[in-house]
Each structure stands twice: as C-alpha cells, then as structure tokens.
Amino acid sequence: MTSLLGAAMLLKQRQSLLKGDVLFIFQPAEEITRGAQAMLDHGLWAKLPQPVDGLFALHASPHFPVGTVLSSRGYASASKTNFRIRLQGTTGHSGSPHEYRDVIAAANLLLNHFQQIVNRENHPLTPLVLSVHTIHAGDNDFFVTDSLEMTGTIRAFDESLQSRTEQRVDEIVRHISKLQGVTATVDMIPEVPSQLNHESLFEASGRACRRLFSQDKILDRPPAFLGAEDFAVFGQDVPSYFYWLGTNTLENKSELHHQPGFIVDTHAIPLGVSLLTLSVLELLEEIG
User: Between 103-116 and 159-180, two packed helices, what is the crossing angle to 10 degrees?
Assistant: First the structure.
C-alpha cells in the first residue's frame, strides 16, 4: 500500500505528460486472500471507462535483501486451496481400545499418507506443498474422544497438480476412514489461482527493473516459496505482472512472513515506489 501510494503521488505530479490513464487499485484483505474477488464482485471492471492493458503489483519479501527484486518470467505466486477434514469415531474406555473407534489413530495415518503424496507421488522438481495446520480433538484430558477436525492447505504453481492433489487427499481420507472404522467428511475450499506473469508485460517490466537494479540483483526465476496472492484473481481477466521486492536488511535481521520478528528495511520503500512508477511509464511508452 505504501509503495502504491507513493507511485500515485509521483505519477500525479506528471499527469499531463502521461500517455494514457493509470488506475490505482488498493487491494484490501490480502492476508485472507479475499480482497480482489470482493472488488470484482462490486463491479470493478464495469466501473472503468476502458479495458485495462496491464496490471503491476509487488509484495515485500524477507527472503531477499533490500536492493533485490524477483521478477519472474513465469509463475510468481501459487494457487491455494484450504481443506477441512472431520472424523467421527466412538468413545470408550482407554483400557479397552478394541471397543471403540479411534479418531486419533486415524488422523495419524492421514498425516503420514499426506506426506507420501508430496515425497513419493509428486515429481521432486515440481513445487507442491500439502500442510496440516490445525488439529482439534476432545475437551477432556485423559479420556477418549470420538471426534476430530483438522485444517490445512494445498499449494502449487501448476493448477492441474493442485487439482490432482485435492482429489488424492479426498481419496486417502475416504480409504483411511473406512480402514479405521470411522466416518469422515472433506471440505475443499478454493482460495486463489496461481499468478502466471503475462508475457505481454515482460518487456516493460524488464526495462523497469534494469533502470532501477543492477543485473545481478534481478532474479528472473519463479520464487522458491509457495506464497499465494489474490492479485492473481485480477490476472484471470487482464494481463498482470507481480514482483517480489527484497525487504530484508543487509544483515539478514528479519524473520520470515507471519513470524513475530518480521521487519521491513525502510530503504526498500523508495525502491517499491520507483518500481511501480517505472513499470507504468514503460508500459505506457510501449503501447502509447
């Protein structure tokens, strides 16, 4: 938001010199990946006087030091699907495990088999993340519980791989629950598609990066992490391009996203402002 506001201020100062119109989208609710779709549901595109030729965005990245940019000519962020699994067994006496159906044992098997999807079914050079984030079961210590709920996420660049993994999770839950004598439900909750940077914006983004960063500070590969961004929702409709801007200190003092020690080196802010500004100017020059 800070970089976008700065870019808006700079471009406003030279509005009379611009070779086209510039739209600034202050996308809300990014952390829960809901803002972009909400804006579209409220008729964002229909409110514009003409179609959009290209969109640029960036995200802070503590994986890289300030003065570095990841500008991928390919995937820039991952697709994401959340899931919720509920297991229902029976209660019983802990001294008679043969007389009840144990949801804890079933969940343990699920966790092990989910990892098999990643490390035995998936090609090792094809990025895939399948994570269980929460497990909730029982309220009374030292007593057998009859219900369990787990939540997690599936992430991939390749959306066909994403879909296959969702199917495999569902299959494994059905088979393990039958094997363990418990019942199960699986809810897949689609979140966002992957962001594939659009080839029509490669030249403008490349020129913008080279005007601002030395060549050795421009990384043109996909990210080595599967962050998901709902900016990708916009990219389903219009050409879009997404940067990861290095924001870690040169001494590597920042922790990673969503960790308590995450910090942004403020020297990255003018770079973010300039990168967005130059991206717009280069595209306008190209199509104007």
Answer: 150
